[in-house]
Fold this sequence. Notes:
CATH topology of the largest domain: Aspartate Aminotransferase, domain 2
Helix content: 40-55%
CATH architecture of the largest domain: 3-Layer(aba) Sandwich
CATH superfamily of the largest domain: Type I PLP-dependent aspartate aminotransferase-like (Major domain)
Shape: globular
Mean pLDDT: 97
Low-confidence stretches: none
Bound molecules: 4'-deoxy-4'-aminopyridoxal-5'-phosphate, glutamine
Distance between the termini: 43 Å
Number of helices: 14
Oligomer: single chain
Strand content: 15-25%
CATH class of the largest domain: Alpha Beta
Structural class: alpha/beta
Amino acid sequence: LVPRLRPYTSTIFAEMTALATRTGAVNLGQGFPDTDGPSGMLSTAQQAIADGFNQYPPGPGLPALRKAIAEHRRRFDMDFDPDREVLVTVGATEAIASCLLGLVESGDEVIVIEPYYDSYAAAIALAGANRKVVALRAEPDGRFALDMAGLRAAIGPRTRAILVNSPHNPTGTVFSRAELAGIAEVCVQHDLIAITDEVYEHLVFDRAEHIPLATLPGMAERTLTISSAGKSFNCTGWKIGWICGPAQLVADAKTAKQFLTFVGGGPFQPAVAYALGNEMDWVARLRASLQDKRDRLADGLRAAGFRVHPSAGTYFICADVRPLGYTDGAQLCWELPERVGVAAVPVQVFTDNPTDWQHIVRFAFCKRDEVLDQAIERLHQLG
Ligand code: PMP
Ligand code: GLN
């Protein structure tokens, strides 16, 4: 294996899910829902297969899907040309990799916010670039907030791009307008490209509001906005994602994408187009139900002895294991399936500074209520 990929031989999600399966544990590690998406979307995919949508779709994506994606961004007053400013990808994962491969030269630096989703570090390594991390900091109420001074300090002469994920996996932080304005200011000042990962754009709770970074002044021309269908429509296995942005930046990402997979997900593309156009009421119900699930799991974790950090979005809650007498979340996560029958993910694996994060573990709440209840009951054995 080439040295630059040696740190990435496995993923925590694959390992924890394998351990959960082996031990029969309730899997609150890997974030995927255990119920299906809207039935109209599922039947559209089945119909597409029956109707012969089984060959390569067009390179940039099915026109109806690109149009639906552009229309979906109009709710933010954003106007993308479906033909030149929208690219369909194999999930957000390929979108992120394509943006980096198309726009970042080897030796360039890319800023990532720590803790970061695992594919960011690997994709930066694939591009031969270097990552610079800026850590989120817990505020007195437990919310993880952007460290603006840290961000400014991370910029150097080789910094080319910043990857911004909001709503944020794994912390559940939804960046405020002030935090995004801080990022925008730095991007404009240093002429950076912003790559935003908005896969949880619909999964925001209470009064939190998802604000795309591209809507801030000076950002539309330098931002590639990424999202995907998996989290919005409970279809994480379909891997239909997309990039929206200025035509030249999208073309640059497409240059890389066309040689990674060329195209993907033929019969799922019309189904996601249908869902974007017709299933937003379903998504609103999903959001409400996930908010209840977040509360259910947060209450249960607190009752079991964890200190729970607030989560304003995503599928995830972070919990501090120290009140239970543990110091190392990774060790706990490796023991937990065997000992009590629950799987979770240690947040330190998403960081370059594991000791700063070793007391935090991530639990996914995108599961049926009875599954969450069973996990909570089992976690009580820890106390
Ligand atoms: N970004 C984040 C923050 C995620 O949590 C995930 C995983 N679910 C992805 C990207 C990958 O999305 P996709 O499955 O569409 O490739
Ligand atoms: N995004 C999901 C998570 O954070 C899992 C994706 C994966 O397994 N790669 O849990």
